[in-house]
Amino acid sequence: MTEMIKGSIVALVTPFHEDGSVNFEKLKELVEWHVANQTDGILVLGTTGESSTMTHEEDDSVVQCVIETVAKRVPVIVGAGSNNTNTMLKKSIDYEKMGADQLLLISPYYNKTNEEGMIQHFKTVADAVHIPIILYNIPGRTGCSISEHAVAVLSQHPNIKGIKEASGNLSYAMNISKYLHDDFVMYSGNDDIIVPMMSLGSSGVISVLANVLPNETHEMVHAYLDGDAKKALAIQHQYLDLIHALFVEVNPIPVKEAMNQMGMQIGGYRLPLTQMSEAHKELMKQRLEEAGLL
After folding, report:
1. Phi and psi (nearest 5°) for 264?
2. How many Å apart are CA 218 and CA 110, to the nearest integer?
3. pTM over 0.90
């Protein structure tokens, strides 16, 4: 079984052509860039990957492309979540067969559920696959949180190996950190609190920032893991203004704008996502210049 990642996991964008179709050549380029720049793991079909506006067939093609391009050089995590548990189950089984190393599973959005339904939602997949599962708690997107009790229960499942905690609520993160153990880890889902989350026991970050600063995000996490909290905090502070700019509008609009300003030519968005305001584009340019990226 794949060992859980310690470090910076990029929440990879999905590049598009002008006509809105997936740009697979650019996707391969991005994967090679991340492997060359110390990214410790690659997440595809996360929130940042815009999978919510892609077809199941496109999802499968993106996963296959990334797995084949990575060729086992770093672990590949695949977002297989759905608010329909049976859909999530099918996608999870399919991605395991394709060669995914791990799965990221989101809590059920829109329809939500009660606590027992939340536990069963994840347990259904965990009982059916043989690769590690990472829970994804992001109540700002889903309208529901994975309760502390549900985390306590799910953390004991032999196939549920971690949680991406993206609520931004350090009190919640502190409370669930009680359930971390050798076989259940936590990742920060917020780039502005990577170091605080690591002080609570996080093994790293699933990061938007890593799309533009892979080396630096890796360095921040590993400085902390190596016992140099002061250096890690200095890196966090150095890029904090850029991190805030990357979330000045809904993700992944700003990070795609940043990558395009950097000349990476990753294309646009699918509606309802669209271009940033001109004021925010100018702010992004300023922050990228300050970070030495332009």
Report:
1. -85, -15
2. 34
3. yes
CB 197 within 8 A of CB 224: no
Using the structure block, give the residue that is written with the tokens 């391009």: 69
One of 164, 172, 239, 269 is an active-site residue; which one? Answer: 164
* Residue 97 falls in the annotated catalytic set: no
- Of 72, 81, 78, the C-alpha closest to 121 is 81
Return the pLDDT at 128: 98
For helices 214-225 and 229-238, angle between their N-to-C axes, nearest 10 degrees: 150
Burial class (CB in 10 A: 0-12, 13-18, 19+), 226: exposed
CB distance 254 to 247 below 8 Å: yes
Are residues 217 and 193 in contact, defined by beta-carbon separation less than 8 angstroms? no
Residue 178: other Cβ atoms inside 10 A: 13
Note if 172 is an active site residue: no
- Domains (range + CATH), the chain: 7-226 (3.20.20.70)
Classify the phi-psi angles of 102: left when phi > 0, otherwise alpha if psi is within -120 to 50, otherwise beta: beta
Q: Measure the CA–CA gap between 135 and 157, rounded to whole angstroms.
A: 12
- Going 74 to 93 to 121 to 86, the CA torsion angle's sign is positive
Residue tagged active-site, from 95, 136, 172, 187: 136
Give mean pLDDT in consecutive 10-residue pieces for the chain, a chain of 294 residues: 87 97 98 98 96 94 98 97 95 98 96 94 97 94 93 97 96 97 96 98 98 98 98 98 97 98 97 96 98 96
